[in-house]
Design a protein that fits this description.
Immunoglobulin-like, mainly beta, 86 residues, four-stranded antiparallel β-sheet, elongated
């Protein structure tokens, strides 16, 4: 199995309270296993507040809906042993 690396990492983002914010990370191979999104070291699941998706097999997207002050912090994307933060 090839080592999946991060081709294009996360970018720092400033957003107004109540708005949605989207983070994207591109990986080197499609169908990457062991992918994880975290906010402030808490693993995120796909639900009504967090939309996690994959486009074209390589572009992993996290959308945080209607952010509040409690959402301030570091977003982390991890694939295998590689990470990107914003």
């Amino acid at each position: 199995e090839p080592d999946v690396t991060i081709v294009s990492g996360l970018k720092d983002t400033v957003v107004a309270e109540g708005d949605d914010v989207t983070f994207q990370c591109q990986v080197s191979h499609e169908n990457a296993g062991e992918v994880e999104w975290k906010l402030q070291d808490v693993a995120l699941q796909n639900n009504e507040m967090n939309e996690i998706s994959v486009e074209k097999g390589k572009i992993h997207t996290l959308t945080l809906r209607k952010v509040t002050e409690q959402d301030i912090g570091t977003v982390t994307f991890r694939v295998g042993r590689h990470t990107s933060t914003a």
